[in-house]
Write a structure and sequence with these properties.
This protein is an alpha/beta fold. It contains 20 helices and 34 strands. The chain is globular. 53% of the residues are buried. The model has no long low-confidence stretch (mean pLDDT 94).
């Protein structure tokens, strides 16, 4: 039985996906009357779908879009080998917008609001492009930004892309070793760096960190200094200021590049070992992002698009591609909970955000603190609410529809840095089901496999992708023979991408993601998803956060299921609370979900993008030294790892 429907699409024929489907029927003779039919065609005929999408976009290009996919093998698929384009040129068309239309609104806790018109953005990119040329940057050189979610970072990305240089960003809250571990692999020649930033009401000086990073990168030829925390902060010796770097204007030109030419390098979280340097291509990112933004999200010139992110998370790359769909991109830098959780909602009201994207933990925290967003801010412009970064449980869905206008679409999505895209998500023509992600994304041949590689429905399985996507990585930097890339995704099911998530794909097309499959909980032969634990435990008023791990028994016994909790101020983990946790898990999930032990710690390890990490905890409990279990610079709160030492067997 399908879950409760919380939102129904209007199906007026005016959404971008409906217009595209009508064009496909008219020009290609393919009848796709609803989303299921469109999705099925998109995976049954990959070349037909992606070829049609590229034709429909009418991107500036050289060459031809044929053949679309002469080699569909994975890994090693080849897309559009005769097509040459440039991501920055595609984005800066900014369709449907006049030169004097505002297309970037940037809010910050470090400085006053900054806005850029379409003409102003193009002019800034042209100036930064001249700065890169003056620094001797050539196609294939790497350009790095140790900078927050601000217009200058976007401008540098677009300027780098225009030349064929390869961009990479790290958020300035990243620790120095985390940054060095990333950028020593790719050897950037230019670095944009801020002096610091303000997080809430606290100023955080990063000048010493910048000095350490630059010293560790002998490849650097130019450091560009942006005094962001303190406008008077002097530039380090030998650096040029952003003002000087962009002082000269010039023609805004674009190198049209092969479809798979490297655009930027994103990095895996690097919680264990060196972060994987994932290379994404101009063509794949361009057509995937425009598909996701236009067709799946229905974003266009009338929208103001916001997603809370830092420059260390792929959602930043996704957010700024919004200009390519004609939307006004809303950037925010700072503490999203300062002075309280209402701050982002109030910002959204002031700016007129129509699509508000955030993380599932943020929504759940608003619910837990009994915040009523629509009562603290005028959110009448809001039509869609996006959620990602962690599974959003059914209680989160119901909270959204208790709190917001019933016409607001909740778009719960899941994907990864690996493709800089969502595999599963929402569409304006698909219902929203309580606790479930609405659909598989167009062109994404997502399936759920059991351990023998057989498709399964209505039960947990491995999330796999059976056919190539254009935004799958060009490769990993420095992985000349492709061995690291193959090992990361293709060793378990040859020719099939294994993503590392548990998915329950329903017989009617929706799904739930229940946690990482490499943090598997397996009791008595039954696989248990971590997210359902967290949904129950963290709904209890005393529990601020939690993490659950299963330590297998080498003798084949049941092993130990350990639940760790961080409590709200004043709460105590006594026998009563422990028993109530067990009762909640038994009654709402099953007796198998009741932990063998419950322990209190200060907090749970999370990546800088907020993802909870079970695997390092499990490693520590198995005896791995704390410093080897996770790269501390990749965590928000590395100090909490020490708490788990006390619970080793």
């Amino acid at each position: 039985m399908p879950a409760d429907v919380l939102w129904e699409p209007a199906l007026s024929g005016t959404s971008a996906i409906e217009r595209f489907a009508a064009w496909v029927a008219r020009t290609k003779g393919v009848d796709v009357p609803d989303y299921d039919a469109l999705w099925q065609w998109s995976v049954d005929d990959l070349a037909g779908f992606w070829g049609a999408w590229v034709e429909y976009l009418d991107l500036p290009h050289d060459g031809t879009a044929e053949p679309v996919l002469p080699d569909a093998s994975m890994p090693g698929a080849r897309w559009f080998p005769e097509l040459r384009l440039n991501y920055a040129e595609a984005m800066l068309r900014i369709p449907g917008r006049a030169d004097d239309d505002v297309v970037v609104i940037a809010r910050s806790q470090s400085r006053d609001e900054v806005t850029l018109t379409a003409a102003g953005l193009r002019e800034q990119v042209a100036r930064a492009r001249q700065g890169l040329l003056a620094a001797g940057v050539a196609p294939g050189d790497r350009v790095a930004a140790y900078a927050p979610n601000i217009p200058e970072t976007l401008v540098l990305l677009l300027a780098s892309a225009s030349l064929g240089a390869i961009f990479s960003s790290c958020a300035p809250e990243f620790g120095t070793q985390s940054v060095i571990d990333r950028w020593q692999q790719i050897e950037p020649v230019v670095l944009l760096a801020v002096d610091g930033y303000r997080y809430g009401d606290k100023g955080i000086d990063r000048r010493d960190q910048v000095a350490t990073i630059t010293e560790a990168l002998p490849s650097l030829r130019q450091v560009v200094w942006l005094p962001y925390l303190d406008p008077e902060a002097p530039a380090p010796e030998g650096a040029t200021t952003w003002r000087e770097f962009t002082a000269t204007t010039g023609p805004l030109e674009f190198a049209r590049l092969p479809f798979d030419a490297p655009l930027y390098v994103l990095f895996s979280s690097g919680t264990t070992g060196l972060p994987k340097p994932i290379v994404h291509g101009h063509g794949g990112i361009t057509i995937e992002h425009l598909k996701a933004l236009s067709l799946q999200s229905d974003l266009g010139p009338e929208d103001r698009f916001f997603w809370f992110s830092t420059t260390g998370w792929m959602m930043w790359n996704y957010l700024v591609s919004g200009i390519g769909a004609g939307t006004t991109v809303v950037m925010f830098d700072g503490n999203p909970a300062h002075p309280g959780l209402e701050a982002l909602w109030q910002m959204a009201a002031e700016v007129g955000v129509t699509y508000f994207g955030t993380s599932a933990p943020f929504l759940l925290q608003c619910r837990k603190e009994e915040l009523h967003p629509a009562q603290v801010a005028d959110l009448s412009a809001l039509r869609a609410l996006g959620s990602t970064g962690a599974p959003l449980p059914e209680a989160g869905f119901r909270w959204v529809y208790d709190e917001f206008d019933p016409q607001v679409q909740l778009a719960s999505v899941s994907g990864g840095t690996d493709t800089c895209a969502a595999f599963v998500g929402a569409a304006p023509t698909v219902p929203v089901y309580a606790g479930e992600i609405s659909c598989r994304s167009l062109g994404c041949d997502v399936d759920s496999f059991d351990e023998q590689g057989r498709p399964v429905r209505d039960q947990l399985g491995e999330l796999v992708i059976k056919q190539p996507m254009p935004s799958m990585p060009v490769g990993f930097w420095g992985d000349d023979d492709g061995s690291r890339y193959r090992a990361a995704y293709f060793e378990d099911f040859p020719g099939v991408w294994r993503h590392g998530d548990w998915i329950n794909l329903t017989s009617y097309g929706s799904c739930t993601i229940t946690g990482r499959s490499d943090a598997t909980l397996n009791r008595g032969g039954v696989r248990l998803g971590t997210s359902e634990f967290y949904s129950v435990v963290e709904s209890m008023p005393e529990v601020a956060d939690s993490i659950v791990v299963h330590l297998e028994d080498s003798e084949g016994g049941a092993g130990r299921l350990l639940l760790f909790v961080a409590l709200v101020e004043g709460a105590v983990l006594d026998d009563d609370l422990t028993k109530r946790i067990a009762t909640e898990l038994r009654s709402k999930l099953s007796p198998r979900h009741v932990p063998d032990e419950v322990h209190q710690v200060r907090g749970m390890p999370r990546t800088l993008s907020g993802k909870k990490l079970e695997v390092p905890v499990k490693k520590i409990l198995r005896g791995t030294p704390v410093d080897d279990a996770a790269a501390k610079g990749a965590l928000q709160n590395p100090e909490v790892l020490d708490d788990f030492l006390a619970f080793r067997p």
